[in-house]
Amino acid sequence: MIRKSNFIKRSAALSFCLFTLITTSFATPYFSGYAGVGGTLKNLDGSTAFLLDGFFSGQFDITQSFIIRTNASLYTTSSIFSNFTFKNKESYFNLDEFSLTYRNYFGSVTQFLAAFAGDYDPIGSDLFLQRMFGIDSFASKLTDTISGISKATIFDNSGLGIAYYLKLPANTALGLYGYYNAAEILSTNTTSTSDEDLASLNADLRFAGAWSQVALDFVFGCNMPIEKTYTNENGEEVKVVVLIQRADLHMGLTAFFGNTNSSSLLFQAGITQLIVDKKTLANQSALSLDNVFLFIEPKFVTKNLIFSVALFNMPSDMLNSLYYISNPTGINLTFSSPWIVISGNRNQFGGMITISSENSMDTLLQDASNLVSGLDLDIIPYGTTKFTSGTLNYSVQISALGITSVKGFFESMVARISYKTMF
């Protein structure tokens, strides 16, 4: 099995040792978490492949003041059909998050101080709002993953860092984050290998609030790319330990109007990179549409049908973990039945129709003919069954355009099934 890096190996071992040490040093902690496993049947390199994924997420309340959170996931990259053992299977292990949080109550204000590695309160996910205010998840079905957590991150805030935030009266929260972000550190979202993305220092300010019909989560911050060389007056390249020459801005907004049991509107928008440095602006524009995140989804709930329409534009490197979105720009229709009780279990059945383009919004605006050449049509019937201890999700995704034969139909099909449970 191939690990992403030796750093991840050491981090996983350190997480286990630290958890063991702390739990034996304090009174019996309170533990909550969930885990799951999923399988994907698809055409891979001209043959049928079955890939297995798994995840674990846990929170350990060691005392009233100290909290440990850990999230890990495993993705196989070679088919189980090649041989029916797990020995020597290629896979990727991600330590998605490991954090230690100190919580302190001061009158009506609750203070949190956290040290973290990985994806801590991802920007674009509703996790921060859930943890702060105890609201139900409002993430779109379209951005679902095996873990049931939206991975449609507006910008990548993974890395090594610290966070200080306050839960204030009137259901509001204010946070400050500082973190070192690098492509090789514990991140499932950062895939770019450009010099600007390989390493950077970041500082973010966050405001969030949740009320009866509105939930808001806004983040504004800067990204300071770290360089290791510079060109001197003689045109020679000089190596240095750390060099920061500019700061780019980024921001993200998640707004949810309504509630999860009735008609609602989910609006998300953000900028992954806004250049303000004059020297850099001499060679490129301040903002590219490739760095703009937009997701708008109104949902309508009637007695016999639930349906939503989504419009999205996402940076391509944010799509790696998503099930149902494979292209950066598109429109989607999702519909489903209300919950139906069958044999004592709640069930929901529905479907998705997505028209998307493999070309970015910048490319489409430059030449509209690219819309036709890169167009995809995905048809996805899906179902969900809730058991007393967990949830079973199953779907079939068919890329309809370009199918010219029965063989082509099956080659375009991707079947998924996953099961997750809380404990």
What does this structure look like?
The protein is 12% helix and 52% strand. Strand 8 and strand 9 form a beta hairpin. It has 423 residues and is mainly β. The radius of gyration is 22 Å and the shape is globular. The strands form two sheets. The protein has an 18-stranded antiparallel beta barrel. A two-stranded antiparallel sheet has the order 10-11. The chain contains seven helices and 21 strands. The chain has helices at residues 6-25, 127-133, 195-198, 278-281, 361-366, 370-373, 406-411, and strands at residues 30-44, 47-61, 66-76, 91-106, 109-118, 159-168, 172-182, 199-210, 214-225, 227-231, 237-243, 248-258, 264-274, 292-301, 306-313, 329-336, 340-342, 345-357, 375-386, 390-399, 413-422.
According to DSSP, the number of beta strands is 21
Q: Which residues form runs of ≥5 with pLDDT under 50?
A: 1-9, 186-197
Q: What is the helix/strand order?
A: HEEEEEHEEHEEEEEEHEEEEEHHEEHE
Q: Gyration radius, to the nearest Å?
A: 22 Å
Structural class: mainly beta
For this entry, give a set of tags:
two-stranded antiparallel ribbon; 18-stranded antiparallel barrel; disordered N terminus; single chain; globular; 423 residues
